[in-house]
Protein 1
Amino acid sequence: MVNRRELDPSKSPADAYGDRLRRSREARGWSQEELAARMGYSSQHISAVETARKPPTRRFSRKADAVFGTAGTADSFERESRRIQHGVLLEGFPEYVGYEGKAVELRLFEVGIIPGLLQTPDYARVLANSAVERGAISPEQADERVRFLAERQAALERPRPPMMFVTMDESCIRRTVGGRKVMDAQLDRLVEFARRPNTLLQVAPYDIGERRPFDLPVNLLTLPDRSVIGYAESQAQGHLDRESASVLPMLTAYHQLQGEALAQAASVAMIEDLRKGTQ
């Protein structure tokens, strides 16, 4: 193809959307003209969306879902277009989420706040509203952020759920978010999570000091083919890493972190003591 623009899906939500649309079309052996005819758009419009020169509208995305059979799914084009419209995701995150819903194992580390996949709706809403008060996002973006998190959580409630390893810095459970009522319900949610047969919850206590290998949140996904993908983020951006040369050391560091962290029983005991106000 002449002048084909290659996209980096981790660059932006629009690039991720365009790359996915192109891959979906090519997987079916359709030209841009053929997809345009099926969706009721011009081939120029298809090209503009595929190269991230034009943002996809809700109407366009619904048409894409109808054509590709993805309407109503956790990874529908319509849901992806909402993320673009409201800008709720860091760069690099859209592609990560696509892998998250397919992973057979998830390893998460978080500092300061409860990991998103374990947050209650009220806890997530408090964080989103706080971002609105700071002027970081709009009320519409806050609504989309909470809605999107619920979709991610629902995608993991499947017949064969993934194994989830979650290690939290002690600051996650000691930092009160939303007042006592919200925090108590959140701590109860953590205890319930730890009871599941496909989960392992650990707290990395303050006293491990310099032996904590990570200073920023880290996510590691094991895919069905047993390949491992790493995702880390700062305040401003996220980075998805598929290179084994850099991902495998992260996996080793995660195992070292688990060795330093409290066992699940001790972690749950600490959480329950906080819930009762005895710590």
Protein 2
Amino acid sequence: MGTAPLLNPFSETFDRDWRAIRALAQAALGLAVCGPAQALSLRLRPDAAPRIPRAFHRLFCRAIGMHIDVIGTPVERPSTLYVSNHISWVDIPVLGSHILGSFVAKAEVGQWGMVTRLSDLQRTIYVERERRTRSREQSNIIAERMAAGHSIILFPEGTSTSGRTVKPFKSSLFAIAEADGLGVTVQPVTLAYTHINGLPMLRSMRHKVAWIGDMELAPHVWELLGLGHIRAVIQFHEPVLRSDFPDRKALARHCEQVVSAGLIRANRGEL
């Protein structure tokens, strides 16, 4: 009978830490180059599409071993509202690598170190969702951006999930689609993480990518950077208009159903 090879826990830990260090070094180098270039671009052409951030996000995804399959095509029209489910902090570089747009994120993201730098590259709009007194002011900021032709990436669940199901979309976050004269196109987007190192994403593995609940950010970032190869799937669904629906609740419900159906197909391996 053959003897099963002995696993070396030290070697496995070293490999994970080395992958994480290498990914951080490559990301820091890319940020050192793209950050000043983006700052100069915003000074010279503040209304230009964020192509430098998209290039950086692609570099970052390669550095951390993120392989992305894309189904469908982003419409890339001026003033497009992309609405996606939300799983992890890494959604920012994954979606940012394929969408020319700015994110809407909760204010806490503006205090998350490198994640903040990634968000700032994309000209993220930070909102304080708990302070309703500022909701009109924050909506006006988003409206001004879209009126200038910028596209926005929105996570209408309002929080991140394990990636198994989609939480109800908050219809209040679709108010921007009702702004007068903008002609906003809304494109539902499904994001799924399906494999780690070639193995299907089991329920017991989802916490390695999903960042939910009271997880501490730094340890989660370190673990994810050291995982190896992660496969993500982005599905761009058929775009719609606000005028296609009787009200924004119906619009939100449609987008939620489309995104949820896409997530089920991705998790079942049916794409």
Protein 3
Amino acid sequence: MTVEDWPRVRAQVAERTDRVLADLRADWGTTRTVDTLEFGPRSFDPDEPPATVEDQLERIGGIASVIVFYTATREETVLVYNPGGFWEPPGGVVERDQTPADAARAEAREETGLDVELTDLLYTGRIEFQYANGASVPLPLAQFVGHRVDGSLEIEREGSDHPGVTRATGLFDAATLPEDAREHDEIRRLLADTTD
């Protein structure tokens, strides 16, 4: 790829990101957005961005996660323990030809062993995915809410060298929800909604 190619590829990916986010908001009736988050560079990515939109989407097409409740009554949430040392809702990279909703369900299944029904889209946003050479690209971010419909809790069994492998899964109610959990305030609010 030449230096001149990247602005064109970046612009095409940005247009796709805008379409994906507009479709999500229309499909779910969600207007809430969050500020753009920076993500990367990841140690296993090349230093320079790819030469095509397809290659970018093959590497990473966005990020999606789901706040999972063990039952529809929202009494307990399911969190995974991240290699970074904190609890968070299951989630990960949107892979090529996946929608953010597909990715959220797939990541929940991979990381927790649970089949999840998505019931809400909490918010959307963008991640600015960084490469080591300083190039970046905007990609969609989606935070869903859902509950278990099948499956049993288990720990992801990928090799220990996998960069995102789940180290533990846990069930937490309002009293035991870790203070430093990602999406803590959102989860607490959603847990509290069932008692109002």
Protein 4
Amino acid sequence: MTAEALPRKNAPSTTPAALGLGDRPAQAGPADPAVTHVRVKLDVEIRALLAHEPGTKSGADPEDLHQMRVALRRMRSVLKLSGRLLGPDAESVRAELGRLGQSLGEVRDYDVLIGHLREVVAEFEVRDQPAARRLVSKFVTERGGAKRRLTRALASPRYASMLRDIGRLARQPDAEELTSGAEPTAADLVAGLAKPHRKLAKAVKALPADPSDDALHALRIYGKKLRYAAEMAKPAAKKKQAERIQRLLKATKVFQAVLGDHQDACVAADRMRGALDSGDMELAFVAGRVAEKELLRRAEVRAGWRAVWAEVDKAAQAVISRT
């Protein structure tokens, strides 16, 4: 075998062409049926996933893993919202994406924690830096185990099979395969934004004055589903509708970021509590200081998230009331 024939280290597992997709994603507009928009969105996201796979494998830049995970989550959302348009196999593909998402999420959580922890302890006194470095190293070691599990998942036949299944769902049918009739239209994708907004609004309304951490995390997931639904609906919308959907996208992005800060603070504080039992008193002291900072960050988010939700609600109502 020549050097040229050898597989490149950390190359993508496959290519869009090998999955039966074109050189670039197909386009879809307001005149196209909803299923075309769904396939186009899957096409775009499988390309994004494959583009970030080499960097995820190498670990050179945590952003690659983050973007690979985002692409995966968008595909899961598309299949949850509109998988019925693609046939009975869509749900099993969504389940496979969920399994891989767990592996990606485990490593991503460590990346966020380690990056934030390094920023926090950098402000501590010089005498606390040795213990701070030991604290960071503890989570770097744990991340190594999670990364090895992810690497095995990306090299598995199960992953390769999942990619082929997504490619099959994303492929646009030949002209003779197209059907006519009462299939959902592009306008239905825009009108469909009412459902994820309604679920989010209902969840907000059900919260007590001081909701639990888990409840706010669940709220963030509802907001993410609304955002991903809006991303798919925007290309299907006419100009004025698309402008209103863009405002909704901006609002949901802020909402997601704010509640993401809350979740990150909660996770970091819990991790620090676990470090208190290490038997290393200096490390435990540093962990306690970090936990205190994270609980303050959590309190700040809790004081302002409802105002951010009000912007999401306003933007969503502007879209839904005109569909």
